[in-house]
Amino acid sequence: MQIILVSDRLTTAKAITIRPWHLFGALFAFTTLVLLLASAFSFITLKHASSLRLPVIDEMIAAARVQETERSEQFVRENLNTMAIKLGQMQAQLIQLDTLGSRLAKLAGVKAPEPVTDRPLPGRGGPLITPETLSATELEAQMKHFSDLLAQQDDYLGVIESELLLDQATLSLVPSTLPVTGGTWNASGFGWRIDPFNGSRAMHEGVDFVADVGTPIIAAAAGVVIDASFHPQYGNVVEIDHGRELTTRYAHASKLHVKPGMVVRRGQKIAEVGSTGRSTGPHLHFEVRVKDVAQNPNRFLELARKALPPGARIETAGRRP
Q1: Which of 103, 178, 320, 321 has CB 3.0 to 4.6 Å from 196, enough for a Cys bridge?
Q2: Per-residue pLDDT reduced to its tens digit, 25-37
């Protein structure tokens, strides 16, 4: 590119040739000058901003501070919301564990622990050595670890509850409840004895409870009634099947309150004490049979006898017809 200069002072016109590198050089010099001037202006402005008290500079600094404060508050809010969600989840897990613990205490027959808020905190102490403040990331990691521990504890207690429920269900089918309360325990025991009618030595396949006529007879365990009828030897008799080829028999009743096919629960009234059948007086003849073979009921009922409170214990008599 050429530039022609014409002037009154010049006798002839002059031509100046501008090459591309001239343009690039001029542009580079102009850019460098602008940057240097801007840097100098920024340095002088920031260095003397506090003394100059320029409104524009003050507004720029205030706007920058506001933006930084908003970003910090937004970060804190997000972390607080995350921690609040974690705390809510942990609180729900703690409530679930507390409910599960109460159920387990009830199943195990122990007193449920008092709420933590009703008890003083345990004593703690020690010298303070190099305290450290947890960061948000570390705090979140600790909360996640604690939440995982709560979940594991919940699963563990759930397994224990299932086992206790299974044990309780199994125990409810074992004749471990006294069939008569308020009478004489073991008036005539299990085993060989002198028969009260013919005086010969005979096998007694149950235990007798002497009680007044009309005294309630209750099921020693849960099960299904398979017989409720009159028998020449047993009189009015009830027989209950508890599963696993285990049955109980209640004889010499005055009245029957169940029928075959009925499902009865442990402790349910099934009959009343009487003296029907081959009997010398009002009492309950109680048998426990496995595969239709008579077992000693004392092995089952001794646990029930020991579980009675002192004021509710029934008298024990020696063997007699």
Answers
A1: 321
A2: 778 888 888 888 8
